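Need the bound structure for fe (ii) ion, inputs here:
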Amino acid sequence: MTDAAPPPGKFMIDPYLEWAAREGVPVHTDFGLDLKRLEVGPWPRFGARGAIVHARGRGDFMTIFLLELPPGGKSAPLRHLYEEAVIVLGGQGGASVRGADGARHSFEWGPNSVFAPPLNCAHQYFNASGVEPARLAICCNMPAVLNLFRSEAFIFDNPFAFADREGPASHFRGEGDFIPVRAGKHMWETNFVPDANHLELRGWAARGVGASHVQLILADSILHAHISEMPVGTYKKAHRHGPDVHVFCLSGEGFSLFWNEGDADFIRVDWTPGWVFAPEDMMYHQHFNTSAERTRYIAIGHGSVRYPFTQNMWKVYRGVDVDVKSGGNQIEYANQDPRVHAMFCAELAKKGIGARMDGVFPRAAG
Ligand SMILES: [Fe+2]
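Answer from helper R.:
Posting the output first, comments after.
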């Protein structure tokens, strides 16, 4: 037998990828993708149009289901044993969630809303417009659950009620609880953020000039979620961590650089609202705001600050802002490749914007 000949029987199987192929919708794979423009097709499971989106750094646990609700349309009611965070890419609509105790919760969403039905709670999404379609990005840990149990029926047709995931009813109305921890770890616990582009953030100077941030705890889930903002004329410090952290641009525009230790060149992704990318395992990455306004993104991954789940995420939460020279995974501005700041200033100059890296680089450099 040669290496190329498949052995008899089952061998090297990814049940999630086999399921994804059977769903019959477009599957898009790339480093960075514009979710507002990707082709969608009929998706009977969701009763809408959709696609499956695989960012190259999606890792072992996470994926994106892209859903388009037609004008006046609604998704099929579903409950499932995976956890999801929904990001509204465009459109206006509503959601209905049935709690474990049978109580029905309804709320209205719009652009940049973020919400999460608690684990295995039945839910349905509605497009309120009779004219425009609505697009939702559902970032979820379905691959982890399907590869663990290998049963569609167990995941989508399971009556078990998790009674302790929902929080107060106010968490379905857009209210939440701020839980102070420390810079970079402050938590906002809720099930629904009406506008993630305007949720109050807290400063995290160790990650970059003017950087602000908050961790989200969505429906007490295992999903990591955080919102980050970069002021005009600034960029974050480079850092690295494990895979599966999906970064969704919410506002403004900019670019990100990606590289592995020792690489001669960068991979570059330019982004505007609707773009998503996921850095691959331990790939350095750095985000730059080149717009005339602040820019925000939301990152969704596996392992929340409440339930880190993996050794990698325990390390991330303990020291994502620690200098590599001290055993951490962040590159301080003073130690970065000189091409980085030059590239940033050149991009800003095209738009007549000056760098505002106060305290790090002189403004004249812009
Ligand atoms: Fe990161």
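Comments: The mean pLDDT is 96. The longest helix spans residues 338-350.
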